[in-house]
Amino acid sequence: MRNIYKALLTGIALSCSAAPALAGSVSVGGVTWDPDFSQAFPPLDDFTAQTKFAQWYVGAATPTAGLGVGNIGVVPNPADAIAVGAAGVGDVLVGYGIIDVINGTGEVDFCTNYPCRLTYTFGGFAITGLSASLNPQPRPLFSGGWVNFYLDDTAPFVGNPNLTNPSEAATGNLWLSANAESFLNDLGEATTLNFLEGGIFTGSAEAFLSVIGGAAFGNFDTDVFTAPGGAVADFLYSGNASFTNASGQLDPTAMYSTNGNGQLRGDSIPEPGILFLFGAGLVGLGVMRKKAA
């Protein structure tokens, strides 16, 4: 019995000795971040990434409309884009982007092996109808939606996301995959992407994402957010973009968004394996104490 206690206590001690590491930087799949970043708010929100992106709508029958998290390494094709003013029920929002800041640090710092690029593709956000909102712009409701994040440590991303470099967005290793959760907007309408301001031509929107795979899956499978309507999610995404002409004016005939930028917020688990070991040790010790009694 004494040996069992000793083994359990040794395991717990080893787990506790790893605790200081939990408070330091976390490195997963080529990405490093500080979970104690001082600007993270609220406290359970210790991962904040800034993004730039380009997006467009495609017809329901186009090949890229059916892409999903299972289509690893595939980028939605800009050639399939339709005019934003022509997008309607069944058409799908797709695009790609880059994460250029994590917890206040750029690629030079968050790339474990610089140079690298942390990019993403997204799609599957199918228009199901229009909101009853009185917003002057059409405000679509959506179903579905997915995001794939990739880490390529062979080269940096060239410039900002635009229609000249989409192939760079899906190279390297899959870092994280996520699906969009359905939730309720301010009018109680179900959607997977909600326009907070504006609408289809220009505005800001949000989505709740749940991770389902990738190298960093175990670090972000937290269910830290509860969306309106009750769905739980691991990330809250917010972003804004506009469809404009060369003069910067809103244009229903525009096919691609400009100046897209956003923020991805979540909570991270520094070392899932160590936390499991620590928990298992405590449970085991409790069982042995009960038997000893």
UniProtKB/TrEMBL annotation:
UniProt KW Manganese keyword: no
KW tRNA processing (keyword) present: no
Source organism, top-level taxon: Bacteria
UniProt domain Ice-binding protein C-terminal: residue ranges: 268-290
A Pfam match: PEP-CTERM
InterPro entries xrefs: Ice-binding_C (IPR013424)
Range of residues in the leader sequence: 1-23
Keywords noted in UniProt: Signal
Protein name: Ice-binding protein C-terminal domain-containing protein
